[in-house]
């Protein structure tokens, strides 16, 4: 399957302690779009993202990837289609070497020999991590771990990348490398991030979540200019849209 439409309809999710994380969430994402899910802490972003590859299953409502509903019976195929990059790369890196981690998914799909070797090499090349191939993951820097975690997903050849806070914890140089890397991907991308400048740069469309509900869905620049909406959702404009804070303060005091 090379083309997919993601359709979420009336999705609800509650955690075992009774906390309601998602309420009647609905949206549609077309093939090739780059979309950000944004909101304050606790808005439901990560919970929603984890439903897209079946890490969490719908309690009520439905999720369809292409023409395939996300169910326990379709989980293997869904996870080949939707590659999930978790916020903490240590959640994905558990093998003795980077090579072993990147090979793990394709190996479990049945790839062997030259085909497996090619898949691993291509994934590492895509994230500029070839020199890390024989390193133990626990010895890598935060930025290196992020790149390798993305490579483990790319090695599965997904059609959709779902990424939770892809630049969290990175220094400015590693952040810029990550943005450049993501700009080069032609996949459908769904990103959660508190880094709203990254969102503005990578995602022409945003979906704003507030207390588990979709409160806005539209063009990033348009919604980021709606200051009242952002304030209601405990968000601010990207720093690049705020201008110089020193100059604003000077204007207010004169």
List the helices and strands and how they pair.
Blueprint: E1 6-14, E2 20-29, E3 34-38, H1 45-51, E4 60-65, E5 68-69, H2 75-81, E6 82-85, H3 98-108, H4 113-126, H5 142-154, E7 160-164, H6 172-183, E8 188-192, H7 196-202, E9 205-210, E10 213-219, H8 220-224, H9 227-232, H10 239-242, H11 245-252
Parallel strand pairs: 3-8, 3-9, 6-7, 7-8
Antiparallel strand pairs: 1-2, 1-4, 4-5, 9-10
Describe the protein in words.
This protein has 254 residues and is α/β, with parallel strands linked by helices. It contains eleven helices and ten strands. The chain is globular.
Helical content, roughly?
A: 25-40%
Uncertain regions spanning at least 5 consecutive residues: 250-254
Tally of DSSP β-strands:
10
Counting H and I runs of at least 4 residues, what is the number of helices? 11
Strand content: 15-25%
H and E string: EEEHEEHEHHHEHEHEEHHHH
Secondary structure class reads alpha/beta
- What is the residue-mean pLDDT, rounded to a whole number? 90
- How far apart are the termini? 61 Å
Question: How would you summarize this macromolecular structure in one to three sentences?
Answer:
With 254 residues, this protein is an alpha/beta fold. It contains eleven helices and ten strands.
Features of this protein?
alpha/beta; four-stranded antiparallel beta sheet; 23% strand
